[in-house]
Amino acid sequence: MLRLAALTILLINAWLCQTRAQTATFDLPFKDTVVCHGKTVTLPFTTNGIFQSGNVFTAQLSDVNGSFISPIDIGSDTATTSDYITITFPHGVSAGKGYRIRLASSMPMMISPDNGVDIKIEYIPLPPVVSNNSPVCEHDTLEVIVLNAGTTQTDSIMWVGGMYTIPVEVGGKLTYNDASLGFSGTYHITRYGLESKCASPTTTTTIYVQPLPPKPVVSATPTPVCEGAAVQLTATSNPAASGYAWNGPGGFVSAVQYPYIQNIKAIGQGWYKAYSVENGCYSSRYDSVWMDVIPVPKLTFTTNSPLCEGGDLQASASDTGNISYTWTGPNGFQVSDSAIRITNAQPSFSGTYYLHTVRNGCNGIDSINLRVKPYPYPTVLNANSPICEGDTLFISSVQVLHPGIVTNEFFAPNGASLGAGKPVVPNVAIAQAGKYMLITDIEGCSRKDSVNVVVKPTPVVTTNREFIGTVQTAVQLSANSNIPGTGFRWSGPNGFSSNEQNPTIPRVTERNKGVYTVTGTFDGCSSDTSTEVGVWYLTDYTLFQVDPNPNNGTFYLTGRVMKQQAIEIAIFHAGSSIVLYKDKFESNGKLVDTKITLPGHLAPGEYILKARADGEAHGVKFLIMH
Q1: What is the DSSP letter of 589?
Q2: How big is the CA angle at 470 (ends 465 and 476), to the nearest 5 degrees?
Q3: Model confidence over 15-37: pLDDT tens digits?
Q4: pLDDT tens figures, 167-179
Q5: Within 13 Å, how many C-alpha atoms sit on residue 578's CB side?
Q6: Is 606 in a helix, a strand, or coil?
Q7: Which of 342, 394, 338 has its CA nearest to residue 370?
Q8: Is the model more confident about 603 or about 17?
Q9: What gap in Å lies between CA 292 and CA 99, rounded to an integer?
Q10: How far apart are CA 119 and CA 204, in angstroms?
């Protein structure tokens, strides 16, 4: 501060007409040479001489360099004698340290010298911006932050309130790791310039340190407890807290005073602890209670379900420890054992089976679904049996539809699959007789139904010959069968019929030639075959010759015909009309000369060769000798 002792200012007479000098003296009572913008002080002064009535004394401030070219009026007083002036250092001037003060009067108009000492004018710091993290709980960390503290090295902060008056260091943050209740209160924070001590407007902040609630007392009912039962937890404190914080095994948490666990699990065994909570503050200590949970048996089931009806339905369960077991199920079923066995099980035994257990006084229950699968409904098989060999076998079925997906498969007596469709066996053989089976299946449960098929043998009738008879001679027909006792029936041209095996046509004529059919029947099964009967007309002369004659079955047939033509020949054993050899060849013009070799080994004896040429039949006899 500016310190002036009895400063005498010589006032110069402003009017030229005034001859006697007037003196005024004044004293600046403040001692600082540094002042703040807006600071108001009282400036006393003393006068000598005569000042006219209405005189005004004005205090003037120079610029920052001490120049009064454009002085600033900073206070005035109307007086004629010693008095004081209230002056204010204006906010609008620049901060600096070269300012001076002088005094001017108006009547007479006089100006004193300046004060002779530089005055420094400083800005007033901005008010601090303050925040804190309260409310905090007792013993927690308290933080107070002055956001614009320490912006320059010339500033300082002072906060006052509660139990403390503390300067804030540069950085503007106060941290207390163990806040006590004494920190609560309203604090006033002021910012100061380091040289001028210019003070900013004051900012206030309020800090709340909440007391901790008392430790609770906890309990659990019941304990020990069976798994699946309900448990009541209780927490009390004195005085009572507004809330409680629980935690326990298996991720258990609760914020109520009396947590209720509806269905406690085995993983719920362990320590349950709780804190008292008041205004978000937790008690420094907790209380705990041990919960003993008796687990229900963890059963492992084994079973042969599903199975087909009629089998033995089995199921069992096991776990460690001293356990008693009781099974209950469909149809009033009840067994006190860990395993069950139901013989000749039927589909009505399907359903849910419950296993009740007791261990250490705790009841448990588990269940398993057992299923007895039904067999398909019976199927009635029909066949067109008995059936003759060579006929078509038909098998039909009458089946009642069973719920579910039923698959069918037919099998032949030799085990070969005939597919799912109803079997049709064309041209059935004796070997195909026997038991035909249908297997129906539902989900692996199969039943077999069958029908027996009888295949009767069908006789094989053969003649394998053609018959040629000379007109008006007898022709004997012959037939054979592979089954003894076969009955025969012949039919042919001109109304011919006979039930003999080897019937005779007494005298053949042109009306008797043609196809003859013989049918063999045995046990109702028949087959037939046919043969042809020819008629020859012999002339009175021999047209052909056999050379050599006799022979061994190989010879030449020679002769003459009327014209070139096809020659038909047939060879018979003498006294028979059964054709042993038949052929056809072309003549060489009117000459016949062809080699004939009879097949097989003909017995020695007399044979007849019959040839048809020129529209007539001719015959020649020859001998075969070996």
Answers
A1: T
A2: 45
A3: 333 334 456 555 555 556 788 88
A4: 555 456 778 888 8
A5: 12
A6: strand
A7: 342
A8: 603
A9: 87
A10: 32
Query: What does the DSSP 8-state code read for residue 295?
Result: P
What is the rounded distance in angstroms from the CA atom of residue 476 to the CA atom of residue 487? Answer: 18
**In the beta sheet, which residues pair with residue 538?**
617
Question: Helix (H) and strand (E) counts for the chain?
Answer: 0, 64
Distances (CA, A) of 268 to 168, 230, 264, 297, 304: 52, 11, 6, 16, 35
Burial pattern 499-514, b for ≥16 Cβ within 10 A else e, equals eebebebeebeeebbe
C-alpha 4/C-alpha 25 separation (Å) is: 11
* Termini Cα distance of the chain: 180
Question: Residue 597 gets which letter from DSSP?
Answer: E
Q: Evaluate if residue 207 carries a pLDDT over 70.
A: yes
Percent above pLDDT 70 for the chain: 89
Cα torsion through 303, 308, 313, 317, rounded to 10: 10
DSSP letter at 66 equals S
Question: Residue 152: helix, strand or coil by DSSP?
Answer: coil
* Residue 223, token pair as written in the block: 């304990």
How does 143-165 read in b/e, with b if 16+ C-beta sit within 10 Å? bbbbebbbeeeebbbbbebbeee
**129: three-class secondary structure by DSSP:** coil
Say how far residue 322 (Cα) sits from the centre of its chain: 40
When pLDDT is cut at 50, 70 and 90, the band that residue 45 belongs to is: confident
The per-residue pLDDT for 125 is: 81
Residues comprising the chain, all counted:
626
Report how far residue 375's alpha carbon sits from residue 484's, in angstroms, rounded to the nearest whole number. Answer: 49
Say whether pLDDT at 76 is over 70: yes
CB neighbour burial string for 71-81, b if at least 16 within 10 angstroms, e if fewer: beebbbbebbe
Question: With bands split at pLDDT 50, 70 and 90, how would you rate the model's confidence at 62?
Answer: very high
- Which two three-digit tokens encode residue 254? 């609760």
Cα–Cα dist 287/289, whole Å: 7
Gap between the Cα atoms of 72 and 56, Å rounded: 16
Torsion sign across C-alpha atoms 424, 425, 430, 436: negative
Instruction: Evaluate the omega torsion of the peptide bond into residue 374 and state whether it is cis, within 30 degrees of 0.
Output: no
State the Cα–Cα distance between residues 305 and 371, nearest whole angstrom.
Answer: 6
Residue recorded with tokens 């089954």: 483
Please state, as a whole number, how many other Cβ atoms lie within 10 Å of the Cβ of residue 21: 13
What is the DSSP secondary-structure string of 501-551? SS-EESS--GGG-EEEEEEEEETTEEEEEEEEEEEE-B-SS--EEEESSSB
